[in-house]
Design goal:
maleylacetoacetate isomerase activity, 11 helices, 291 residues, alpha+beta, glutathione transferase activity, Glutaredoxin, four-stranded mixed sheet, Glutathione S-transferase Yfyf (Class Pi), Chain A, domain 2, Thioredoxin-like_sf, transferase, three-stranded antiparallel sheet, globular
């Protein structure tokens, strides 16, 4: 019983990130169909998934198409009530739903001025009054949620919920464009930057798909503000410590070098996503720590 999810370019598709997190963060079984933004219109690429026209689009195990990310959250929560997509506490759940719904329909100035681009961070972006107004509203509702339901952890309504999945791309915009926020809001942004799931998504985006100029902005660049990755690189050296890929368990054919050690993977994508951020991948880090 596996879900099929259609996703756009990982570095740029903020809605795809939300849809993927709804599956990946709660360990639901899924298979990805990648919709490359360089290969023509999204609508044409998902034309056989009626009535979808955008990404993400979810196809349930019995074949029902869910073509909206908020509907995705509600449908997955209904089908998997015990995994915690929404908070169990009624008051926290109502707040989380309100947060996700406002994100789903609002903050147009921020979205338009600061498209998500996980391949770039900017040093000298000057936000407009409209963008600052969106940021002010975001900070207000984040602060309210944290004060009422945040508890001791970093997330908005206690444990990580769909509200956090919906605001993950907003956090990446704040980080990538250096938007001015309070210390409390910055701590929430840092929680997303350090979230292993989001780091895995970004690592895949760095090595899959093209640089898309329509998402770039002409501001001075700075290093990505997330954790610095371990230094790894592809290599032709095939003297790998492992005989099978840490992800698929298939025989290795592509190789990576880290700290003078050689590790093998079943395909180039497995190798390259690992090289982009080795510490984001628990299966690889377990392999790294075996010696």
């Amino acid at each position: 019983m596996t879900y099929q999810i259609y996703l756009g370019d990982y570095s740029y598709s903020s809605w795809s990130l939300r849809g993927w997190l709804l599956l990946h963060r709660w360990n639901l079984p899924y298979h990805v169909t990648f919709v490359d933004f360089s290969d023509g219109s999204v609508a044409a690429q998902v034309a056989n998934v009626v009535p979808a026209r955008t990404v993400p689009t979810l196809v349930t195990p019995e074949g029902t198409v869910v073509w909206d990310s908020l509907a995705m959250a509600e449908e997955l929560a209904s089908r998997h009530p015990d995994v915690g997509i929404w908070p169990a506490d009624p008051a926290a759940r109502a707040t989380a739903r309100s947060l996700a719904a406002e994100m789903h329909s609002g903050f147009g100035a921020l979205r338009n001025a600061c498209p998500m681009n996980l391949r770039a961070a900017y040093a000298d972006y000057a936000p407009s009054a409209e963008v600052l107004a969106d940021i002010s509203r975001i900070e207000a509702i984040w602060s309210l949620a944290r004060a009422r339901h945040g508890g001791q952890g970093p997330w908005l309504c206690g444990s990580y919920s769909a509200a956090d999945a919906f605001f993950a791309p907003v956090a990446m915009r704040i980080a990538g464009y250096g938007l001015p926020v309070s210390a409390q809001a910055q701590a929430y942004v840092e929680a997303h930057l350090n979230d292993p799931a989001l780091r895995r998504w970004r690592a895949m985006g760095l090595v899959r798909g093209d640089d898309l100029p329509q998402y770039a902005r002409g501001y001075a660049r700075k290093p990505w503000p997330g954790p610095a990755p371990l230094m790894a690189e592809a290599t032709e050296d095939s003297t790998a410590e492992n005989a099978t890929c840490p992800y698929s368990h298939d025989p290795v054919a592509h190789f990576l070098k880290l700290d003078g050690r050689i590790f093998g993977f079943c395909n180039a994508f497995c190798r390259d996503k690992t090289a982009a951020d080795p510490a984001a991948w628990p299966a690889f880090m377990a392999l790294l720590g075996n010696k």
